[in-house]
Target: Phage protein
Amino acid sequence: MTDIVMLALDGEAIPLKNIIVTLSMSIQDKDQSGQASSTASAEQGTKGKELKVSGIVAYSDKSILTRIFSLAEAKNSDGSKKRYRVAHEMAQAVKFREATFSSGVDAAQQTDSMAWLVNFTLTEHASVAERKAQQASAGGKTTTIQTADGTAGAADGETAETRTWFESVLQKVDNAIGPAGGEA
Model:
């Protein structure tokens, strides 16, 4: 019987039995009521998502336990924690793509079976909220403006060289037709 892989990190299967994956997302807010009985609070943003993974590793599969711990300990050449591409159905549904191990890894002996219960948490590296904030601060907004003489403005920093061949042809056709509404 073959096992179905439920979780993979950088394409490497994490073959846990009875795997349970819990997805969580923290929404930070701060109490603004002071000493009053008000329920006012200030939003402080959405934090990255977390995948909490729990599963069983049989004593006979010690290499799996060893591998999970070595993945958690892995560092990049600059000494930072290694980031992993996460492959899991729930992670894919919420665009959870890259993560690092956080909050430790633990393995507890099971009294009813010859196995360990392994728990670990993966924290999202660049959350959707973070990526949106970076894109907004980068100023890479594209604006197309229809002017009175029928020419359309290009995106910030776009020149004729950055347009594709097809876009150049369309621009020439647009210029030949003239402005919208038949004004000449």
